[in-house]
Amino acid sequence: MYTSRMTTWITVLVAYALSLATSAFAGTQGSTLFPKPGSPSKLYTLKQDISGPGFYAFFKFEAIEDPTHGRVQYVDEPTAIRENLTFATPDTFILRADHKTVLTPTSPGRKSVRIISRDEFKTHIAIFDVRHMPEGCATWPAIWELYPTNWPSGGEIDIIEGVNNQAANQATIHTTSGCSMPPSSNPASNRTQLGSDTQNKCDWEVNYNAGCGVSFPKSGPPTFGPAFNKAGGGWFVLERTPTVMKIWFWSRNDPTVPAEVKSKYSAVVNPSTYGIPYAYFPNTQCEFNKYFKENNLVINLTLCGDWAGGDDVWKQTGCPAPSCNAFVETNPAAFADAFFDFANIRIYEQPFDLGIYPKRHVEGRRKALSHNLGVKEIH
Ligand SMILES: *[C@@H]1O[C@H](CO)[C@@H](O)[C@H](O)[C@H]1NC(C)=O
Ligand SMILES: *[C@@H]1O[C@H](CO)[C@@H](O)[C@H](O)[C@H]1NC(C)=O
Ligand SMILES: *[C@@H]1O[C@H](CO)[C@@H](O)[C@H](O)[C@H]1NC(C)=O
């Protein structure tokens, strides 16, 4: 263990030094080595590399009632494995809804999976290398982060979300009252992003918890649903700092994807080189330290429910059957493509954190994790 850690540190330090040299050479970054007090360093180092069986160590299964009233029954880990609703090889993790069982209107929902990370994160980068996401009528897949106690007191950040094969991804933040986003249509807000803001009050009590959403463009690289899958998926990247949240996306064959995003072996990443994000959430009208605590990562696949199954939403989709629930009950085969296929998820944090947050590492949980194979922990 000791030697492998040493090697990791040497790799990280060499990469850090190289990266400093490169940015100094490019002359664009100023001095990263001596950042201004209070300004976060831009380099992040690999904390968790989650691939294949590593998903079982990093996440726990939540066999809970769907809080969004979907026509699903979330199962525990043994059930998911037994029924092949989750499946891992060294470089693949599949998470799916059942696609075999015909249900009756009174039976429990279609079996599906919701997983939540054991670890929690504040300032971090999360890179999601997704080959396939659940598609089809009634599906409502999501990859997101939240503070699980007393929702939404510690915030919610939705990175990938959408329903019923909608054309483009939507990223959203949800908070308690008092947090909003400046309209990106106002140039003075400096909110430069590729997506368009839908509404800008993040307060969950406004507009039926619509949140501050950003719709990704409908033209250009496909970010959601069947077109995303057909393109082989792609990379979603979240950066969360005390002052800004940004979400980028690159489609599988996009030649401009940064090499460090593409390679699962990147020890260090520097998002200041990634260009204009799809979604940009600044802290100018929202004190992030107050509205966002340490968040857990969640992946869930519900069917119908408050959004996907809403009467208006369902009618607009062109999906058959009188209602979303009836569709789920009677058409198991329609869910054959309702699955996530992950190449990996990587989490990066700042080892040279300047202490804007008091760092709260959950040592007990980390120790509990470290005996599990599959998650590479780097200290
Ligand atoms: C699924 O994810 C979305 C995140 O956007 C969340 O709003 C919803 O409550 C989640 N549903 C379940 C059942 O976990
Ligand atoms: C389980 O699912 C995986 C991924 O879809 C598939 O390759 C495998 O054949 C399935 N196993 C069984 C026993 O059905
Ligand atoms: C926008 O950017 C300009 C130039 O950097 C800066 O002076 C101004 O304060 C910024 N406005 C906001 C709302 O952040």
TrEMBL record:
Transmembrane segments: none annotated. The keyword Transferase does not apply. CDD domains: GH16_fungal_Lam16A_glucanase. Pfam families: GH16_XgeA (PF26113). Residues 1-21 form the signal peptide. Keywords: Signal. It comes from the Eukaryota. One of its GO terms (biological process) is glucan catabolic process. InterPro entries: ConA-like_dom_sf, Glycosyl_Hydrlase_16. PANTHER family: GLYCOSIDASE C21B10.07-RELATED (PTHR10963:SF24), GLYCOSYL HYDROLASE-RELATED (PTHR10963). This is Concanavalin A-like lectin/glucanase domain-containing protein. It comes from Crepidotus variabilis.
